[in-house]
Amino acid sequence: MMKHLIAGIKRGLGLHRPGRSLLILPDDIFLVSFPKSGNTWTRFLLANLIFPETPATFANIHQLIADPQGTNKREFLRIPRPRIVKSHECFDPRYPRVIYIVRDPRDVALSQYHYHRKLEKIADDYSITTFVTRFLAGETCPHGSWGQNVATWLITRKDGDPRFLLLRYEDMVADTPRELEKIAAFLNITASPERIAQTVERSSADRMRKLEQAQSDDCELTKGSRKDLSFVRLAKSGGWRSGLPEAEVARLEDAWGHLMAHLRYELLFPEKAANFDSRFAETILHEASR
Amino acid sequence: MIKRLIAGGKIFFGLNPPGRRVGVFADDIFLVSYPKSGNTWTRFLVANLVYPEKNPDFSNINDLLPDVLGMSKRDLERAARPRILKSHEYFDPRYPKVVYVVRDPRDVALSEYHFDIKRRAIADDYPLPQFVSRFVHGELNHPYGTWGENVATWLYTRRGDARFLLVRYEDLQTRAMEEMERIASFLGVAADPERLAFAIERSSADRMRELEKKQGHLWSSTRETRLDKPFVRKAKAGGWKAELPGASVAEIESAWGGLMRELGYELAVGNGIHAGMARG
After folding, report:
1. How far, in Å, CA of B14 to CA of B74, rounded?
2. Residue ranges of the domains in chain A?
3. Helices A246-262 and A278-286 sit at what angle, rounded to 10 degrees?
4. Does A233 contact chain B (CB < 8 Å)?
C-alpha cells in the first residue's frame, strides 16, 4: 500500500519513469540493442555528436539520450526533439526509426556474465555453463534471448530500409569514425571530421572508465553495484576466444550459428551455420517484410 | 487536470486493460493470432472444449478466455488459473505457452477490410486496392504490426519449441477433429471424440451467427459497431480468389511470398521467393 502511494505521488509530480508505457512520438529515434552489446557506448557517441556543447557523462547521459527506465517523465519533456530513446526491446512496430546495434553473442554472453557478477546477481564462482544455459533460454534478462531479440528486428526491418540502421559493435570498435558517419547520415546531421573526432575522443573507453569511477552512484546502470568490478570492461571484441570455454561456444553456435553467419560472425564450428531450421530462417531473413 | 486525475485513479485501482503490458504468470497459455485470423472462432472452440459446462457464448467468452485488452488489470489478476488468454500481439518473449493461429493473408486482408467497415474505421465505398496497400505497408487501424511482422516474429523465435503450437485456420476448417485433438493435447485436456465433436458443433459458424444476433451488443469487439454488417461473416477459406483484385494479390504475395509458402499457402502469381530475394 505504502509502495503504491509513493508510486502514485511520484506519478503526480512527473518523477516516475515511463518504462514500457512511454508515449512514442512520430519523430522518435530508438537506439535498440540486446543488453551488453555496446548500447551505453553508442549513447555516449550519439550524445557527444548531437550535443557537443554538453560533454556526456554518466551523470547526464539519461538527460541527453533518453532511457525509459532511467529518465523520469519531467526530464523526458525537456529532451529536445527529435528524441533519441534507448531500448533493449524485441521488435516493436511502433518504433518509427531504429538504430540497431548487434554484437557477437559469444562476447555478449561473457559480458553479461561479468555484469551480473558486478550487480551481485551471481557469485564470482558461478558456473559459466549454467549461465550459458540460462542465456540461451533468454532467462538472463527480460528482453528475450539474444537470438530472439536480434532475429525479430532483422526479419522485420531490412538493411537499407530508411527506418532502420543496422550496426555491428565490432565494426564500431574497428573504425569508429566510419560507423559514426553512418549514424550522422541516418540522423541527417552534417558533422565535420573535427566534430566526429571530438565525439570519438569524448566517448573513448578510457574517458568512460574515468567517468565511471567518479560517477558510479549517479547512474542507474551502476548504482549500488560492486565497485571492484567496472561497467566499462574491456570494450573490445573477440574476448570470448580466451574467456569462453569451447564447449559453451559450441552451444551458442548450435543455437544461433545460422544467424551469426548471416551477420558475418566467423564460427569456430562452421558446420553449425546450417542447422535443422536454417532453410526456413534463410527464407524469412530474405523476405521483404514491410 | 480532472482527466489526468481520473486516468491516475484508474491506474491506481487497476481498472485499465493492460494490453501489451499484461502481467504474465508462468502457467499462462496464450491464444495468439493476427487480427481477423480466426481468433474468436478458436476461442469458442477452446472454451467449449475446456469449459463445456459454462455454456460459452458472447456474453461470457471474455470471462472464460480473457482478452488482454478486454478486461481490467485487476480482473485479469483475479482470473482463475491457469489462464487461457487471448492476444493479437507480435512476439512477446514473456508468453510461456502459445497457440498461434495463422491464416492466409489474402483472406485476412479481405476480412479486415470488411471488419473496418463494420466498425466505421473506413467508409462502405473505401477502395479495396488502396486498403490492401495500407495493409501491406502497415498503415493499419490496430497496433499489431503487419501480417508478416506478426507471423514471422512468432514463427522464427518459437518454431520447433514444445511450448508453441501452430494452427492453420484453413486446417481448422477442413479437418477440425484432428486439429482440435492437437489443441486438446497441447492444453493437457483429456478429450474423447464426443467431447471434441461437441466443442466443434457448439462453435459452428451458424451457431456463432445466431449468438451474435442476440448478444452482439454485449461483446467488446462488436459493441457499438454497425448492426447491418455481421462480425461472423463467411467463415470460409479462399474468399480472396473471387473478391481480391489480381494486383492486390500480387502485392501481398510479393511482400510475404516466402513466408506464405513456408506455411503452405500456394501462390497465385509468379515465384514469391525470388521476388523477395531480389528486393533483399
Report:
1. 5
2. 13-221+230-286
3. 40
4. no
Give the residue among B164, B160, B158, B106 at the shortest CA–CA distance from B135.
B106
Which residue, among A192, A186, A162, has the nearest Cα to A46 in the 3D structure?
A186
The amino acid sitting at A46 is L
458472447: which residue's cell?
B58
Query: For the segment A183-232, what is each residue's pLDDT rounded down to a tens digit?
Result: 999 999 999 999 999 999 999 988 888 888 888 777 777 887 887 788 87
Q: How would you write the pLDDT of chain B (280 residues) with one tens digit per residue?
A: 666 666 666 666 666 767 777 889 999 999 999 999 999 999 999 999 999 999 999 889 989 999 888 778 888 888 889 999 999 999 999 999 999 999 999 999 999 999 899 888 999 999 999 999 999 999 988 899 999 999 999 999 998 899 999 999 999 999 999 999 999 999 999 889 999 999 999 988 888 888 888 887 777 778 778 777 887 887 788 999 999 999 999 999 999 999 999 999 999 986 544 333 333 3
Chain B residues with CB under 8 Å of A287 CB are 148, 152, 255-259, 276, 280
User: Residue A60 contacts by C-beta under 8 Å, 6 or more apart in sequence?
Assistant: A54
- The answer to whether A90 contacts B137, with C-beta atoms less than 8 Å apart, is no
Of B50, B53, B48, the closest CA to residue B203 belongs to: B48
Distance CA(B39)–CA(B29), nearest Å, equals 14
Asked whether the beta carbons of A184 and A190 are under 8 A apart, the reply is yes
Between A and B, how many residue pairs show a Cβ–Cβ distance under 8 A? 109
* Separation CA A105–CA A111 (nearest Å): 9
Give the CATH architecture of domain A13-221+230-286: 3-Layer(aba) Sandwich (3.40)
Q: Answer whether A163 touches B (CB < 8 Å).
A: no
Nearest to B50 by CA among B191, B164, B161, B153: B191
In sequence order, the β-bridge partners of residue B166 are B100
Between CA A139 and CA B212 the distance in angstroms is 43
Q: What is the ipTM of this complex?
A: 0.86
- By the 10 Å C-beta count (0-12 exposed, 13-18 middle, 19+ buried), A41 is classed as buried
Could you give all domains of chain B from N- to C-terminal order, each with its CATH number? 2-104+141-232 (3.40.50.300)
